[in-house]
Amino acid sequence: MTYPTKAIAPVFVGKSLFEDYRKVQTEFRGDTNFFTSANIKACMKKVIAVNLHETIQVDSELSIRAFYAGHVLGAAMFEIRVGHQSILYTGDYNMTPDRHLGAARVLPGLRPDCLISESTYATHNS
């Protein structure tokens, strides 16, 4: 999670986005074994914020690096590298700059072995 995302997360957690979702799932849909308010708070306490382009060396083989996703304040893509293999993981991203956000940016020539992306609005030809 980037520093801007961590800074605004209490608005979502404290002001009910996650809480409302939890409540709907458990009280209205009847789901069980769902996370609790205490789970949400405990999880957020464990979040480690990172800067864009910062590489976190988890151990001798595993590293994680954040890149600007161009979607919302603090949105990031993450390159996860294990040995010589890499994954680029991203939620929403935007390749077109607009008035308040630039386009997503990764290092030139970055070629992950696997791309995992959110795809709500993805289209394909049949």
From TrEMBL:
Q: Give residue ranges for domain Metallo-beta-lactamase.
A: 2-107
Against Pfam families, the record matches this protein to: Lactamase_B_6
Write the protein's name.
Metallo-beta-lactamase domain-containing protein
Xref: InterPro entries: MBL, Metallo-B-lactamas, RibonucZ/Hydroxyglut_hydro
One GO cellular component term, please give it.
nucleus
Which SUPFAM superfamilies does the annotation name? Metallo-hydrolase/oxidoreductase
Which superkingdom does the taxonomy of this entry point to? Answer: Eukaryota
Task: List the GO molecular function terms.
Answer: RNA endonuclease activity
Q: A GO BP term, please? A: snRNA processing
Annotated Gene3D superfamilies: Ribonuclease Z/Hydroxyacylglutathione hydrolase-like
